[in-house]
Write a structure and sequence with these properties.
This protein is of the alpha/beta class. Helices cover 44% and strands 20% of the residues. It has two domains: 1-128, 3-Layer(aba) Sandwich (Rossmann fold), CATH 3.40.50.620; 163-287, Rossmann fold (3-Layer(aba) Sandwich).
Length: 287
């Protein structure tokens, strides 16, 4: 089995598909890897088990045959749609990023098992989310994003807006294990190396957190990154981070994702989810 790594772009034909393709292609070109285009078809099952047992045997058999034909038609339409979608996406990437390798994958079922099928190949996963309707932090950003991120051992890039080649990034840092892991991953990757970087901590003005921020900054500087450290005072971490991003016109956000369990989130919420919901900028999530 070929285990060459790729940047896996999960496309669904929604309005964010082009953004997913472009950011996946940008990521792949930075790492000199191909893009893996993944489309997963979820064909609805028929309602044959709901047929009433009170109707006659002949009538029941006739209806079952009709439902079987409908299932086959739905599957045929879904396959045709999937074929057209991945071919259009492949053409779009190749026309925008000359010479970039693109592999096409089509599967039936659920998204997470399809992604996990490629675990040995995935270097990064790129997914889309809606745009304007995600500016309200109270709405549900979609359970699939969190499900995929929690199950993934590689970074996940979430995007929604039209592609803009990033020139700067912000790393949200709180001294946690996930934040330190994010620093380690950035330090080992060429993705952000030539960009202006900002490592930002909000509140936590104590000796331990200040030292942790300094160590992380030194690690990135030693690795050849252009990075500035910022220790902010703000009543709310999410608002503080996003205000900073706006002031500095930062293009992309990197954050250690879902440091708490789902059970803990019932009580403390999730900074990760709130940032995804409130920004339209691309976000790289590191678990």
């Amino acid at each position: 089995m070929n285990t060459e790594q790729h940047i896996l772009a999960c496309i669904d034909g929604s309005a964010v598909t082009e953004s997913v393709c472009d950011y996946a292609a940008w990521y792949a070109s930075r790492l000199n890897l191909p893009v893996g285009l993944l489309h997963v078809s979820e064909v609805a099952a028929s309602t044959r088990r709901d047929l009433s047992g009170s109707i006659g045997i002949n009538s029941r058999q006739f209806l079952l045959e009709e439902l079987t034909q409908l299932d086959e038609q739905r599957a045929k339409v879904a396959n045709s749609y999937s074929n057209a979608l991945v071919e259009d996406a492949k053409s779009h990437i190749q026309s925008s990023f000359d010479g970039l390798g693109v592999n096409v994958y089509q599967r039936h079922g659920k998204l997470l098992p399809a992604i996990e099928h490629f675990n040995t190949k995935n270097r990064v996963i790129v997914m889309g989310r809606r745009g304007e309707d995600h500016r309200n932090s109270q709405i549900n950003i979609g359970s699939q994003i969190e499900t995929v991120v929690r199950a993934s051992s590689v970074p996940v890039l979430i995007c929604s807006e039209a592609f803009k080649s990033p020139t700067s990034y912000m790393l949200a840092f709180d001294g946690s294990k996930t934040a330190i892991k994010a620093v380690n991953i950035i330090a080992k990757s060429p993705l952000l190396k030539e960009m202006q970087g900002h490592i930002v901590m909000v509140d936590n003005h104590n000796e331990t957190s200040t030292k942790s921020l300094a160590v992380a900054t030194e690690q990135l500087t030693t690795s050849g990154f252009k990075i500035e450290a910022h220790h902010l005072l703000a009543a709310d971490a999410v608002d503080g981070l996003l205000d900073f991003q706006k002031q500095k016109a930062v293009d992309i956000i990197v954050i250690g994702a879902y440091g708490h369990s789902k059970f803990q989130q019932l009580f403390v919420g999730s900074t990760t989810t709130k940032i995804i919901a409130k920004t339209l900028s691309p976000v790289i999530l590191v678990r």
